[in-house]
Amino acid sequence: MTSEALAGRTVECRLLDEFTGTVRSGLSAALVLVGEAGIGKTRLLDHAAASAADLQVARVSGVEPERGLAFAALHRLLRPFLERVEKLPEPQRAALAGAFGLTSGAVADLFLIGLAALTLLAGAADERPLVCLVDDAHWLDRESLAALAFVARRLHADRLGLLFSVRGDEAGPAAALAGLPTLTVTGLPAEAAHDLLARSAPGRVAPAVAERIIADTRGNPLALVELSAGLSAEQLAAGAPLPDRLPLGRRLEEHFLGRARLLPAATQSLLLLAAAAPPDDAALLWRAAGRLGLPPAAADPAVAAGVLTAAPTLAFRHPLIRSAVYSGAPAADRRRAHAAVAAAIDRDADPDRRAWHRAEATAGLDEDVAGELERVSARAGARGGNATLALFLARAAELSPDPQERARRLLVAAEAHLVAGDPAAAERCHALALPGLRTPVARATAHRLGAALAWFGGGVATVTSASMLAVAADADLPADLRDGLLFEAIAAAVLAGRHTAGTTLPELGRAALPEPGRTAAVSTVRALVDAFATRIAVGYAPAVPLLHAAVAALRAEREVSHGTVPFVMTGQWIADDLWDDEGFRAVLEHADELARRQGALHAVYAQLAGRATTAIWSGEFDRAAACFAEADDLGPAIGVPAGDTSRQVELLAWRGLEAQARAAADVAITEWDAHLGYAILGDHARHCLAILDLGRGRYAEALAKLTPGFRGDVIAHGNRALPNLVEAAVRAGDRDLARAALDRLAERATASGTPWALGMLARSRALLAADADAEALFREAAEHLTGTTIVTELVRTYLLHGEWLRRQKRRAEARAQLQIAYDSFAEMGAAAFAERARIELQATGRRARARTAVPDLDLTPQEARVAALAAEGATNAEIATRLFVTASTVEYHLMKIFRKLGITSRRQLGRALRER
């Protein structure tokens, strides 16, 4: 159904009718209306509500004084559906109850709260399609806006629509909603503007006056209406001059304020009280009014003047009037209004709002109010409201008489701002805190936070590992704080590599070495520090037991990260350094389960890259692509732009997609490495391009890319590059470099002792061995690798063995090895290596067998992920939780998957996928 279009808004109304029509049809939609104040966004939301008259409609408006109260807006939007909370999965139910202050317990990740909101709204939409209208989103509290933006990005087939309105000059909200479909609302077309002006004016409007008004207001409907009502008949008819400055933007607020100030004093006081109080709690407003001696009749002049509306409840006619009344009031009057609101709030029922209004009512310093703010800030933080925690603590710091208390509160506020995604505010609080810090613990905490700010602000190369090391040397620091500083310093230096300033990895390693003879149990952080420090400063072989212990600790760790470093990232480095494919997968699976249960999207994002890597190793390139697609889908929710393929270089290289691989590597090398200081990403990209070169038989080019990493001894993938370096050096004729790489590989692979490590060692020895010894080494390599999940390296072993046999003129035996290599590479889609195997096979006198074409089933990455999980036996609800979507979206994808695969049930999925 459609509603009557607003004058001059035919296109916008048509799009909104299509929006509601999409929801009505069973799918979902999200849209952001962007425009200046007064441009008509609220009227367009009204049109959408009318267009959705046969659907459920839920509506919430942002309110400026409520911006500091975490999840206040989300609670107001979800209130009609809260009876459904008991139907949510337990982690989501607990997260939402915690966010709304209904329970206490573990801190819920913001995105788990968003997933709970999505599930709740989608459940309501199952009964009847639902449209949610979010007006003045720029005035929503940060947590509510982030949760609703998360919901909007996860919609697909849920009969649910989210429609936002936001001012275009508000950078923060615009960033939170970035990537969602956007409709920019501009001024009315000339004809519609003339019609509106003619209807609104009390008398005839001269053409020249109309042109001036429309030009100066840029067709802003609210400005046109207000201006026409405020001008005299003589001015409109060109009989008297117009004001030099017509009301627009800030002047429009001043215009509303001028109208309010013409009202009686009691009415003005009531208006200010209404501007400061929550918009949907009439009882609270009238209790506060009673404390100021304001009778209900005080509202009548404002209603008569069109400043307030009386039905269904007392409300401002336009949000700009509320803003004008509040911001234009004298500070003393605002404090008086906030004091009345605070006094009218039940301390036990709503302690957060009461404390905030008390703070806003306070001038000067007041430890009692500051202490109350800090107490409720802890409650907000426990609910996942980091922006509220930061805001409350920063305000508490302003009210603190004691300089050290002020500094301490500012420091905690800075950390909360950083977690909430506002590094600029964190920088300000951090800088204000520094002069008041007196204790070693406070200074160390501040230094660690400064490093995190540097990490977020200028890239990992700006993290001051050297000064973190100096601070960690203070003997008075608690062990956990010292260990945390050392861990983050080492992690930053591993990422930055040659870009590390003021110190070196060996210096960091020596400073962080474990105490001799220590036998007591240690934390995961300390286990990681011990492993890295020993590996860096003492040597690989002595570090191996500690590296294995660190992997074991990570497999049992209950936290997803330490400071700015996700544990899954360091776990991947260590397992990779050990050639421990089983440990690598176990760390990832544990991190995946933990992060998804907690809704920790940053950790989910980090482990998806690792899962893609394991899929590449096992030759499952489609699964790797699905992991990257899922990461790309989640990226915008955590501030990572979609479309960055720099982490996909290894997959692109194995697939032989040279142009794409080089383009992705260029981003990693020029942007992430050279610009942001992540040398580890640049080194990895070069290693991946070397794999591409080896597949193409370009051994000298591969050698040139691998040699710098060998000399720098890059942790993690540096060990994995050693067999590639041996192969490239042997084929390029640099046997001295090949022997040097083999020596390092022999020392480390023997110490590690994993089948993967021993298989790579045997294969590399075979490349340098005498003919009499090579064959046994190739067979030994294949035997070791058969016991691993590293299928790509096993197949490369067949290829190298076959090439060696052909050079020994043992063509029949060579054909057997090369045929296996060709078939396997072709099946997994390793185009370059398949071509290399085909050429070698042809040289033995056999043409490569034609392969039966596999139909392109055209599953999207999301469909492939849903299909794989369903084939493993996961229910729709379980798949929805893992992929941060709804069960309805999973069902929608499964119907499409069944149709594409030509099957009719989940029982057929596994076989159908294997036969693709």
Kindly describe this structure:
The chain is mainly α and 916 residues long. It has six domains: 10-184, P-loop containing nucleotide triphosphate hydrolases (Rossmann fold, 3-Layer(aba) Sandwich); 190-240, no CATH class; 263-440, no CATH class; 441-538, no CATH class; 539-643; 861-914, Winged helix-like DNA-binding domain superfamily/Winged helix DNA-binding domain (Arc Repressor Mutant, subunit A, Orthogonal Bundle). 65% of the residues lie in helices and 4% in strands. The protein has 48 helices and nine strands. The strands form three sheets. Strands 2-3-4-1-5 form a five-stranded parallel beta sheet, with helices on both faces. A two-stranded antiparallel sheet has the order 6-7. A two-stranded antiparallel ribbon has the order 8-9. Strand 6 and strand 7 (315-316) form a beta hairpin. Helix 40 packs antiparallel against helix 41. The longest helix has 19 residues, at 440-458. The radius of gyration is 33 Å and the shape is globular. The two termini are 43 Å apart. The relative contact order is 0.05.
Main beta-sheet annotation:
5 strands, parallel
Number of domains: 6
Tell me, what's the shape?
globular
**Which residues form runs of ≥5 with pLDDT under 50?**
852-856
% residues in beta strands = under 5%
What is the total tally of β strands?
A: 9
Strand order of the largest sheet: 2-3-4-1-5
- Tell me the structural class: mainly alpha
What gyration radius follows from the Cα positions, in whole Å?
A: 33 Å
Write down the overall mean pLDDT.
Answer: 86
Q: Approximately how much helix is present in the residues?
A: 55-70%
Number of helices: 48
Kindly report how far apart the N and C termini lie: 43 Å
Keywords: ATP-binding, Nucleotide-binding
Protein name: AAA family ATPase
Pfam families: AAA_16, GerE
InterPro entries: AAA_16 (IPR041664), P-loop_NTPase (IPR027417), Sig_transdc_resp-reg_C-effctor (IPR016032), Tscrpt_reg_LuxR_C (IPR000792), WH-like_DNA-bd_sf (IPR036388)
